Amino acid sequence: MKRPIILHPDPRLKKSAVAVPDLSDELRSLADDMLETMYDAPGIGLAAPQVGVLTRLIVLDCVKADDEPPRPLVMFNPEIVGSSDELNTYEEGCLSIPDQFADVTRPAEVEVRWIDRDGNERHESMDGLWATCVQHEIDHLDGKLFIDYLKPLKRQMITRKMVKLKRERARA
User: Fold this and answer.
1) Which of 55, 77, 80, 112 is deepest in the core (most CB within 10 A)?
2) At the top level of CATH, which class does the domain 11-171 belong to?
3) Cα dihedral angle (14, 18, 24, 28), rounded to 10 degrees?
């Protein structure tokens, strides 16, 4: 089931999400809903706070090539356990901040640990777009948005555009 995506500014996007103590069918169903919502948007990542659930859950799939099979990842309690000194800058966007993009610099490679939908602990080294995306989504779990990396003026400009967009959508 597709879920509505919360748009910035919204206080729920600035709150820290709580750890998942135990996997449940309800949480697996939430993960399925989030994947459906993400693919429909279309996006490459989505965090539970973006659909109004303050739980440490993210989904991502950074496969962009049409000839490659999708690789959906469901991550409960994801954490970055290591990162490279080397940095990468990507133009980031966010489903909660539609049509707004900005360059953000982050570690080029990260080591991530999480619990998969079957309750197994997983580890993976990620680089490129996968590394950027997983860091972006984990930031959401900590109440941080990509615009928080920007200079105040640029951040305020994007926030004003989002307030205007939300007003227009409310009237429609």
Assistant:
1) 112
2) alpha beta
3) 30
Please report, for the chain, the start and end positions of each structural domain, with discontinuous segments joined by +: 11-171
Q: Tell me the C-alpha distance between 61 and 39, whole Å.
A: 9
Q: Is the pLDDT of residue 65 over 90?
A: no
40 CA to centre of own chain: 15
Q: Is 111 a catalytic residue?
A: no
pLDDT digits (tens, 9 = 90+) for 125-140: 999 999 999 999 999 9
Neighbouring C-beta atoms of residue 3, cutoff 10 Å: 18
Q: Say how many residues make up the chain.
A: 172
User: Residue 172: pLDDT band by 50, 70, 90 thresholds?
Assistant: confident
Decide if 38 contacts 3 (C-beta within 8 A): no
